[in-house]
Amino acid sequence: MRDDGASGLGVGAAGMLARALGLSLLVALTTATTQRAVAQDVGLDAGPIEAPENAERPAAPATADEWRFRVGLGVGLRPDYMGSDDYEAVPIPQLTAYKGPQYVNLTGTYLFSNVIPSPNWRLGPTAKFIRGDRCNANDSRVNDMKCQANALMLGATGGYAFVVPGIGVPQARLTPALEMVGDVAGANDGYTIEPQLNFAQRLSDSWRLGLRGFGTWGSGNYNGYYFGVNAVQSRDSGLSQHNANSGFYQTGLLSVVDYDITEHWKLSLIGRYTRMVDDAKDSPIVDGKDARGSANQFFGGTVVSYGW
């Protein structure tokens, strides 16, 4: 059942987020000439994963006026729908452009960025494409609920990076952040808010570590679309009806480990654990009854990239 308790709020929030996206893009254009180059916070993401910030070091000395680029390709293993216990392989393409602390990163179906020319403040447009997965699921009853529409979530992410003592090194970065995105494609008609705590540091000249703890709150429309079972879906699939109201639907931990193979080539290892909670956990497509679904969700992947 797609009901926010105030459905107009979901549409209004999506509109505000879209306006915030436009404002952030305007800021990006007006700050194209940045100040002195500093360490950039860049992570990896592919659809179901969200990236912790990860200090990116240029392969060669760069000036504040130089744009640098990285392209990559990898493969990951993910649940075939949100809450599934069946997994599928997915490609992970990557494209990154950065100059000093500013960057735009498109990895998989997720775009994130920072347009602020500051060594500490973070703010930039965020976009996520969520594929309508249910008609391609391995579970026939889930497929009987019919296909979902593809969603495009637009919004922004902001935060502030603190310099803190690292693990075996003098300095690391600890960045509290908040991500807000809303659907603009008319699929779930909802929005999500995700508080994050990011930790990033170099382990050596070649190794870097990024960690993110997060919890994701979904509006009633969003949670109902992905975890609810309405009367028609119940009749078609034989699953029990279920109302998924607004609230936190997941919490988890993401890790990204980068290894510099050469001056230009990099290997990135990605791992994520997510625990479904509350109404999402109790959904008949997640709760594990009849060997269907799991509240424990995993993602693993690797990306090889080239930078210049």
TrEMBL record:
Domain of life according to the entry: Bacteria
Keywords attached to this entry: Cell outer membrane, Membrane, Signal
Assigned GO CC terms: cell outer membrane
Subcellular location(s) per record: Cell outer membrane
Principal location: membrane
InterPro entries: MipA
The UniProt record lists the keyword Membrane: yes
Protein family per UniProt: Belongs to the MipA/OmpV family.
Name of the molecule in the record: MipA/OmpV family protein
Organism expressing this protein natively: Defluviicoccus vanus
